[in-house]
Request: fold
Amino acid sequence: MGKTVDVKNIGLRGVTVADTKVSFIDGEKGILIYRGYRIEDLAEKSTFPEVAYLLLQGNLPNKKQLAGFNEELLKAREIPDQIYEGMKQYPAEALTMDILQSSISILAMHDPELEDDTREANVRKATRLIARLPIIAAAWHRIRKGLAPLSSDDSLSHAANFLWLLHGETPSEEVARDLDICLVLHADHTFNASTFACREVVSTKAHIYAGVAAGVGALSGSLHGGANAKVMKTLLALEGENDIAGWVREKLDRHERIMGMGHAVYKTMDPRAIILKEMAQRLAKTTGMGKLVERSMQIEKTALEEFEKRGKSQIKPNVDFYSATVYHQMGIPLDLMTPIFAISRVAGWTTHIIEEKTGEAQEKPALYRPKAEYVGTYCGLMGCTYTPPS
Reply:
């Protein structure tokens, strides 16, 4: 265990709460690794199912193991009819993240292995969750538009099948591969807010679905997964802006935040953002959205110059800044950008949950029970005296 430090009032930053073998970040050097592998190598050479297997099992699969894992994902693509029927009753304006969270609880009710807390059973449950979250998100998108959900196409990859279920069109190999890379990039990120939420919940001996539901709830916030949608809203609102540099300077002069800039851990550019920036530029050559990407780059350029002048050179683009333009070019609605984050991060969440439950990276799992410092009213040595209402 690493040494803890006193960081009162800054959200436990810098406090080591547990050991992990899942992933590692060097924020000073901009390094992210999953199970020892650099994110750049995985994004270039691997696939999301392969990375999900790596996270869950601790090693990259051979061809036979990968084929078996892909087969398990295919078998798990069906979801209970109760979820579809419930969606038809929900208000169309319901948040997709809320739909995901509530649906996860329904999945728990239908899982025959719910009370089996062995590692093997939890890996199977994790596989089912990885397979089903994309089905749920895509089904909700169609149902809220008055369309019938589509059936999965078992000839398509994990990423390509999601795009098919969402749009009703088979995506090009290039776009499907780009989404697959996005899923790889988002699959895990050590003890971020949502992952910590998952681990904290299951430290009570709650089941894996309860942990994942907590992760979805944490991810829904605008300071975590919801940032990418806010980035996209900003870019769309600036469509008619002729002075992007002036807009950036004015915003910083008002001490306002530019969404997608800065990170709690990275002091240099997020390595995932580097990959997504190149992807956004490449996609623009076929989508015709070059002006949108150029707008992003203008904001980045001016912001970095201004941060340098203002002594904040450590603030760089994070994963949300360019994932917004990438997803938009794939035809993904704003309110589905964070759910896609969840569709990927469920691989990391479930891996951390299993690690927490089994104590794989520490002597034994411990119930998380942080201490709070009371700063409220205090009346006398024995507390305030209660007086009944007259």
